[in-house]
Design brief:
The complex is a heterodimer of chains A (398) and B (114).
Chain A (H helix, E strand, L loop, with lengths): L3 E8 L9 H16 L11 E5 L3 H4 L5 H9 L5 E5 L5 H14 L5 E9 L5 H9 L14 H16 L3 H15 L13 H5 L4 H4 L2 E3 L2 E2 L8 E10 L14 E10 L14 H14 L8 E3 L5 H10 L8 H6 L16 H5 L3 H17 L12 E8 L4 E8 L2
Parallel strand pairs in A: 2-3, 2-4, 9-10
Antiparallel strand pairs in A: 1-7, 1-8, 4-7, 5-6, 8-11, 10-11
Chain B lengths: L4 E5 L5 E2 L16 E5 L2 E11 L11 E8 L4 E6 L10 E11 L4 E8 L2
Parallel strand pairs in B: 6-8
Antiparallel strand pairs in B: 1-2, 1-3, 4-5, 4-7, 5-6, 7-8
Classes of the chains: A alpha/beta (398), B mainly beta (114).
């Protein structure tokens, strides 16, 4: 199979967008193309564009955005398709880009993920995200993604002895990391006692889905991110020879039951484990090879659970590693150096692409202020539904 | 009166809830099912109290839980009392309106204390 890697990255500032959905995609795409040195018009070499979004049709009344993007970028007649896989849309689109190049069908693919959610009220956004739940067994009950995170957290607390203070520690870490990421939605330092001390916590971090509080979950964000993929055997010929080739060493996805209650052990995230195992196998690597990880911490309990399912820590021990500071920059295995979904933000379709952008910056040594020293290999986990469709990606310069 | 059902595979006998197109037993490929009432005693496996309810709920918060029925089937539903539940507590399932829709109400599990 051909080697596929990333030679260009782009990322808008996450938060509240002042421009339209399509303009947001365009900004990220152009930044990635400029980063790689990709040309437009008659000099265009991009064969295919994938646009990842969960809800542009529902929230922004735009369909066919990949076709529109190709047109405004003047890279016709590149092929163009939109990809939807819930909050894992971004990594799914990268996977499809990988497949398109590895198969020989394409040499160069632009992947852009984006979401514009802050055009609706909080309860409308919550409802929109909840549409990915089981259509008869979950969604009609008023269940939401925070609901499932609450149900899951309570079980994990009971089983492994994790506490709300452990989650608050992760919140503090991810907010601190986001202070060094100019694209992060929330750039605000958080003090542990302000979001965990019983004297303040109801005011500073109100309960959302007991036992989860506001600071235990991500904000609603707008944003876009882009990566330019190229075949290793065409990198020089297509004009990208001067760029570091951040190789996609492994990329895989897996599914689990749609109806969460049907899982044999509801504290396990089987799709995360399976996707990670497949990605490690494809890369010929293991958890010991990972220098940094971007994990899908839409709810902070997921950072703990995913880090265990990916083999970074033994089952039930990730919170102990957090207490020891092992997931901080400078620790044994830094997690969510970008600020994670928690602080960087979570524009659904953009998230999987954004995670890979961060890994590319890390392995290139360009993550200013948050650089993991000597980082050569990174792992991303992009989590769809409540863990029923997960993509794991390994990026390396080794 | 509204009723909730489990679906027994006609080929291997495995019980399901909710309905699937194909039996979920990895060793079976059954596609026909017989409905059986799913009600009565159950145990609470986990619960949450949610304060940011989606569109259509005129309440400040709701309790939700996952339960296991005596026949082994697990299900998600609303919890119909205000006190803080406890993992492992005994409950009984009732059926009621879980969401008021425009022109159509949605019925589902509401778990109560015995």
């Amino acid at each position: 199979m051909r080697e596929v890697g990333i030679v260009g990255v782009g990322h808008t500032k996450f938060g509240k967008s002042e421009v339209s959905f399509l303009e947001m995609l365009t900004q990220a795409a152009l930044e990635a193309m400029d980063d790689a040195g990709a040309k437009t018009g008659k000099n265009n070499v991009i064969d295919q564009v994938f646009v990842a979004s969960m809800g542009a049709g529902m929230l922004n009344r735009i369909s066919g955005s990949a076709s529109a993007l190709v047109d405004t970028l003047n890279i016709r007649p590149a092929m163009a398709e939109c990809i939807e896989n819930g909050p894992a849309s971004g990594a799914s689109a990268i996977k499809l880009g990988y497949m398109a190049i590895a198969s020989g069908m394409c040499d160069c693919v632009l992947v852009v993920g984006g979401e514009m959610m802050r055009v609706v009220s909080g309860w409308e956004a919550t409802d929109f995200v909840a549409t990915m739940l089981h259509p008869t067994g979950e969604y009609p009950y008023g269940l939401t993604l925070p609901s499932f995170a609450g149900l899951f957290t309570r079980l994990r607390f009971e089983k492994y002895g994790e506490t709300s203070e452990d989650l608050a520690r992760i919140s503090v870490k991810n907010h601190a990391n986001a202070m060094h990421n100019p694209c992060a939605h929330i750039q605000r330092k958080v003090k542990l006692e302000r979001i965990s001390d019983p004297r303040y916590v109801d005011a500073t971090s109100p309960m959302v889905a007991d036992p989860l509080r506001q600071f235990d979950m991500c904000p609603v964000s707008d944003g876009a991110a882009a990566v330019l993929l190229v075949a290793k055997d065409k990198q020089e010929e297509l004009g990208f020879g001067h760029k570091t080739f951040a190789r996609i060493a492994g990329i895989a996805s897996a599914t689990d039951t749609h109806y969460v209650a049907d899982r044999a052990d509801p504290t396990e995230l089987l799709a995360v484990r399976t996707a990670a195992e497949k990605a490690y196998k494809m890369a010929g690597m293991g958890p010991e090879d990972i220098d940094c990880a971007e994990l899908h911490d839409a709810f902070l309990i997921l950072e703990l659970a995913e880090s265990e399912e990916c083999g970074l820590f033994p089952k039930g021990e990730a919170h102990l590693a957090v207490r020891r500071g092992e997931t901080e920059i400078g620790g044994k295995i830094p997690i969510n150096t970008s600020g994670g979904l928690k602080a960087k933000g979570h524009p659904l379709g953009a998230t999987g692409v954004s995670q890979v952008v961060e890994l590319v910056r890390q392995v290139r040594g360009e993550a200013e202020g948050r650089q993991v020293e000597g980082a050569k290999t990174g792992l991303a986990v992009n989590f769809g539904g409540f863990g029923n469709n997960v993509v794991a990606t390994i990026i390396t310069t080794k | 009166m509204q009723e909730m059902f489990a679906y027994r595979c006609d080929k291997c006998g495995k019980l399901h809830h909710p309905r699937y197109a194909v039996c979920q037993n990895p060793d079976c490929d059954g596609r026909s099912f017989t409905e059986e009432p799913l009600s009565g005693h159950c145990k609470l496996l986990t619960w949450t109290r949610v304060f940011n309810l989606p569109e259509g709920y005129m309440k400040a918060w709701l309790n939700f839980g996952i339960v296991q029925f005596d026949n082994g089937v697990t299900a998600t539903g609303q919890i119909g009392f205000d006190e803080r539940p406890e993992i492992g507590m005994d409950l009984v399932s009732t059926v009621g309106v879980v969401k008021e829709g425009v022109g159509k109400d949605y019925y589902g599990f509401i778990f109560q204390k015995p």
